[in-house]
UniProtKB/TrEMBL annotation:
Keywords: Membrane, Transmembrane, Transmembrane helix. InterPro entries: HGSNAT_cat. This is DUF1624 domain-containing protein. Residues 25-241 form the Heparan-alpha-glucosaminide N-acetyltransferase catalytic domain.
């Protein structure tokens, strides 16, 4: 990572990958990103994994909870951000070799950070998980970056259709070697077979070792999620439409995507682990509606007094994602005595002695544990925001 400042991110000079080619920043995008990262910390860091309110858990398989919206929202934001970073380069025309290399470099760094998180703290390369959250973000960033620079918006629409329909055909019609007919079960679907074949079971998601929720084949529909963000950003950047018209048509498009996703779900169920095509449309519609609402509130109407907590998270999203995971695993290295004669990491010790005894309902205690972490990170990120410190990949 490199240390930079907010002003440096907004320059249009020698760093095309980081330039903001529009007049000013899209405040709503930073707010949307920040809210998404705050939600991620909330669901990833409960005080007690055994006591969680249902909306803060992933769907067991088919279906969609609020927690299942977080990752697709982030990929949608990646697509929007790409356009605001690269549109000036595309509009100027000319050679794009330098910016394409920057896109490739950033994707490689993101993928490497994902591997680092998988390796830490044991650094056992024989069982390291190859795919993961940052790895999928890296692949979507790379694919959407190249597609945006090299194609028109009409081509991007057709690519979304191709990715989603093609993925549905692969998952629902192509027989799975060694298992027979196509199916959508966790361990026997085509994507799970492909991951086991390419990576071997030792390098898959450690909770199963038979399939991976961020598997390779799922990158195809995930690209569709990113491209929905790309299309949304191109619409927002149009100069021949009034803001009210932009927002209105975004809500129309969002509603259409949500309906299409729900209509498709009886045949290809909404499923985060599979990143099903119906899931892409449903979550993409919700993300589009969310950004449209924030764009109207923050950028058009100028109501920004409430946005600071989200902004301080939004401008350092990758930093807080990585450090929260690293610190959680570091705390696990310190085994301490817990109530009831059990042992646990430093985080569990702080929770069991400092938070849990004050609540009758353990779900409330678990929720407060997660909120406490959000508050702690807020003060750290707020100080960085005040100093103008932004860490970018």
């Amino acid at each position: 990572m490199q240390r930079t400042t907010q002003a440096a991110l907004e320059t249009t000079g020698t760093q095309p990958i980081a330039e903001a080619s529009q007049p000013g920043r899209l405040i709503s995008l930073d707010v949307f990103r920040g809210l998404t990262v705050m939600a991620m910390i909330l669901v990833n860091n409960p005080g007690d994994w055994g006591h969680i309110y249902p909306p803060l858990e992933h769907a067991e398989w088919n279906g969609c909870t609020p927690t299942d919206l977080i990752f697709p929202f982030f990929l949608f934001i990646v697509g929007v951000s790409l356009v605001y970073a690269l549109d000036g380069v595309k509009q100027r025309g000319g050679p794009q070799g330098t910016v394409l290399l920057r896109v490739l470099r950033r994707a490689a760094v993101l993928f490497g950070l994902g591997l680092l998180l998988s390796l830490y703290p044991k650094f056992d390369f024989s069982t390291v998980r190859i795919m993961g959250v940052l790895q999928r973000i890296a692949l979507v960033f790379l694919g959407c970056g190249f597609i945006f620079l090299k194609t028109s918006w009409r081509t991007q629409v057709w690519l979304i259709i191709g990715f989603l329909v093609g993925y549905a055909v692969l998952m629902q019609l192509v027989p799975v070697p060694g298992f027979g007919a196509a199916n959508l079960e966790p361990t026997t679907n085509l994507g799970a077979w492909l991951d086991r074949t390419l990576f071997t079971e030792a390098h898959l998601w450690k909770q199963s070792r038979t399939w991976d929720p961020e598997g390779l084949l799922g990158t195809l529909p995930a690209l569709g999620t990113g491209l929905l963000g790309v299309l949304t950003a191109q619409w927002l950047r149009r100069r021949d439409q009034e803001p009210a018209a932009k927002v209105a048509w975004l809500f129309v498009a969002a509603g259409g995507l949500i309906v299409l996703g729900l209509c498709w779900s009886p045949w290809f169920p909404i499923n985060k682990a599979l990143w099903s095509s119906s899931y892409v449309l449903f979550c993409g519609g919700l993300a589009m509606a969310g950004l449209a609402a924030l764009y109207w509130i923050c950028d058009v109407q100028g109501y920004r007094a409430w946005t600071r907590p989200a902004l301080v998270y939004g401008v350092n999203a990758i930093l807080v994602f990585c450090l929260s995971a690293l610190l959680s695993r570091t705390f696990g290295l310190f085994q301490l005595a817990l109530p009831g004669g059990k042992t646990g990491g430093l985080k569990e010790w702080l929770y069991e002695w400092g938070i849990a005894p004050h609540f009758q309902d353990p779900r409330n205690a678990s929720l407060v544990g997660a909120i406490t972490l959000i508050v702690i990170w807020y003060f750290i990120l707020s100080w960085m925001y005040k100093k103008g410190v932004v860490l970018k990949v």
